[in-house]
Amino acid sequence: MPLSEDPTALQGALLAEAFHLLLSSGRPVPRATLARAVGCGEAAVDEALAGLERIGRTRSPAAGEVLGSLGLSIEPSPHELLLEVGRRYTWCALDAVGILGALDASGRIRSVSPATGAGIEIGFEQGRPIALGGLVLFIPSATCTSVVDEWRPLVNFLRGRRGSRGLEHRAEGRRDHASARGGD
User: What is the pTM of this model?
Assistant: First the structure.
């Protein structure tokens, strides 16, 4: 399970605003836009986003634009969402399912099995999967310091329990690494 820092009120507002702007526009969100939206200065936004980036809650390259927030991204990943507003990506399979469910949205998830490389596609109607066809959502219990960099790459769709062994070993390696750092 990821280590977590509770976001400050400003960070929470930035996460929500960035998520909604990424979802609606499919374009990078400038920090200045976020500062105006939450009613504070750009220096405060920069500091808050730096903290969120450090713990893996946002993705903001040096150009000063947010590309991902709360699991939703405009950067290509193995987990693609096809929505009415267009194509978006997620940091992991759980984000894909959670976003469609939380938004009560219809659409499709396209993913890739890390065990076989085979494509996986799941249709959703009003936030619910249409048919899962034996798919399993693998969620590790590994501890980490950055949700997006360390934990989410392990969260994937698999066809049955086959193939989960490799992910379980990767997750165990992360847990051992966290223990060595004193982060368990």
Answer: 0.82
